[in-house]
User: Fold this.
Amino acid sequence: MSNYQYSNMILIIGGAGYIGAHINKQLSINGYETIVFDNLSYGYESFVKWGIFEYGDLGNINDIRKIFQKYPITAVMQFAAFTYVGESIKDPQKYYINNVCNTLNLIKVMLEFNVKTLVFSSTCATYGNPMEIPITETHPQNPISPYGHGKLMVETILSDYSKAYNLKYVSLRYFNAAGADPDCEIGELHNPETHLIPLILDAAIGKRDNIKIFGTDYKTPDGTCIRDYIHVTDLADAHLKALQYLENGGESDNFNLGNGNGFSVLEVIEKSREVTGEEIVAVEEKKRQGDPPILVGSSNKARNILKWKPNYEDLQEIIVTAWNWHKKNMNLSKNMIIMAYI
Ligand code: UDP
Assistant:
């Protein structure tokens, strides 16, 4: 067994990625000792600025066992997943193996080591096309992509395991994670980038010529899709509260995490123009496959039970933090290029 100096450590799987890194920061500044386990397929070692970094892959069960042998882990947070909905339709096997089978490996090892507290990163994509807005946790779950199906499968597995093995879990169904650490230490950096706000900011900074608007004839007030953008630091705070809820004996459960306000693609572009002071050329494009017109969540359950509430309800504040990070990151990339020539 471990002889590590701490007696209570949180394992963050996928903690080198956008969301996991913000959770790592939030847990660390709130006194938790963390271990980030990541295969760096989409994450960045430079994002692991707190706790311990351990390279490893959930596909290799012995990689996982080694971590549990080495450290006194009391709880796990699972962020390691592929997240490109379109890709999941083209290559479902990639998604089911990584997002479902590999999560099962993780939970198998947790049970072997008698670690029974898990916070799982789920998604509003488990609901599929919404039948009513705002979406609550009791809304039917009919995913329309292998990505959404895989996340729902894990939710179902967690529910069965909690009954059979007394696993205690919280699944957090995110709406659109956005923004960056207000201290600009970490932020959103995907490769390839497909998300609306970073793409708009790429256009603002001149890295792209324009932003493409996927569909302008949706049944929404301005014809463009409406989404619920939740600041990543608010997400991080919800994970901290979910962990504390489980530590205090809370029952296994699922919670939506959104900020409850919907913004259209055009509104996001217009607000980004205001924040950046740049023109930002927008070009109309055809609809993207599988995009529901409106996705807005009710997070009342998380507010009531986890005692959580978003601090960044205003789109402007979300975009300001994203823009600050985007400019800094752009400068970092430029400096790296300059260094390469020296
Ligand atoms: N979107 C867009 N242009 C882009 C990227 C996204 O119009 O280049 C739209 C997309 O159709 C959706 C919204 O912006 O309505 C948010 O998309 P994103 O990919 O950021 O998140 P998703 O809602 O797919 O999780």
